[in-house]
Amino acid sequence: MEEYRLGELRHLLTTVFLSGFSEFLVKPVMTDVTVAAVCSGLNETCSLAVYLTGVEQVTVGLGTMVMMPVIGNLSDRYGIKTLLTLPMCLSILPPAILAYRRDTNFFYAFYITKILFDMVCQGTVDCLAHAYVAKNVCGRKRISMFGVLAGVRSISGVCATFSARLLPIASIFQVAAISFFFGLVYMRVFLKERLHDDDEDDCDEDDNTSGRNHHDGGDLTMLAEPILRDAPTKIHIVLNTKYSSLKDMVSLIKNSTILVQTLVVTFFATFAQSGMQSAFLYFLKARFGFNKNDFAELILLVTIIGSISQLFILPKLVSAIGERRVLSTGLLMDSVNAACLSVSWSAWVPYATTVLVPVTMFVMPSVCGIASRQVGPGEQGKVQGCISGVKSFSGVVAPFIYSPLTGT
């Protein structure tokens, strides 16, 4: 059974890698491209670029806040492979625009197109990949596989950032568009649903056993069994009526205090991360004169450390101290990291804080693992959609707080 599941996940991980490679490839150059397209001088702090980034985060966040629960709900009904097709198709066009030209007019065409498409595309591959893992991997093995999934995405970031360090800007956007296209073709050809009733029964039994046998006393009560097993009537209603995705979310949340707690943690963790990301690179450019190569080196260092920690450290740490303690430690180190970056006095400080990255990378895999254990295989899409929706909502709120603070 384990070999079978790993064989299935191989194709998913390849799809995630190709998608992540395309996304990470353009990140180091977007700051320079944006400043060159909308700012009059390279030496200006250029508040417009910061506000454009904030507007993009707010608009995309509002769209994905609505779309992620819908996509998660639809994936439970029509299959993950079907729902993956649309966002992977739409993701090809924005980098193709900048691959052609990068002047002001084409930048704004890219900007508007990316905002519209990202309302459906942003976070969708990750959301559905988590739902796929949760449906095909049982019990405590899920959080390890969530770590593997995050690690593969981080590896894609390593490869993409290293490539961005070497490629010219025009080639970067061409390669990104091609990678999205190959990821779409690979997913359509090789990825299979492979969700059968006997697998769901095995997962239910393994969830119960793992919850009862978990050595961490705090986790024993929390993860004893999926919350909807004791309410088959409610599951039937959610799965077999025309309830909206919002009502599905409310139905799930009302049945689980633990799920509410994971959503609260998701909101505040993502709020901090989104706020930092919306302005941090512009801060480094204005304060220390960072350029494309400096951004690439910093992101490369972070993604290398993060991928190693997620692939090799997280599974062992979960077995040693339990999911809740791993989550608490990750949140603490995330706070310390943000505090250090907020008082950066020299260009080496952002590099030095990467020593905290291994632990900060544990937050979302732990959250997804805990949340996935609260429902059965048939509701994993809804749960991951809830988490993605909350992440999008925090992404909407964060720029309202951070952009005025950094755009002066």
Order of helices and strands: HHHHHHHHHHHHHHHHHHH
**Second rung of CATH, namely the architecture of the largest domain:** Up-down Bundle
| Structural class label | mainly alpha
Number of beta strands: 0
Which class of the largest domain in CATH terms? Mainly Alpha
The CATH topology assignment of the largest domain is: Growth Hormone, Chain: A
- Model regions low in confidence, pLDDT < 50 over at least 5 residues: 208-243
The coarse silhouette is: globular
Overall pLDDT confidence: 76
End-to-end Cα distance, whole Å, is 57 Å
Explain what the structure shows.
- The protein is mainly α.
- It has 2 domains: 1-193, MFS general substrate transporter like domains (Growth Hormone, Chain: A, Up-down Bundle), CATH 1.20.1250.20; 246-407, Up-down Bundle (Growth Hormone, Chain: A).
- It has 19 helices and no strands.
Short note summarizing the structure:
With 408 residues, this protein is mostly helical. Helices cover 82% and strands 0% of the residues.
Core attributes:
19 helices; Growth Hormone, Chain: A; 2 domains; mainly alpha; 408 residues
Give me the secondary-structure topology.
Elements: H1 2-38, H2 47-78, H3 80-90, H4 93-100, H5 104-121, H6 124-136, H7 141-166, H8 169-190, H9 197-213, H10 217-222, H11 232-240, H12 245-254, H13 257-288, H14 292-321, H15 323-342, H16 349-352, H17 357-360, H18 363-372, H19 380-406
Helix pairs in contact: 1-6, 1-7, 1-8, 1-14, 2-3, 2-5, 2-6, 2-12, 2-13, 2-19, 3-5, 3-6, 3-8, 4-5, 4-8, 6-7, 6-19, 7-14, 7-18, 13-18, 13-19, 14-15, 15-18
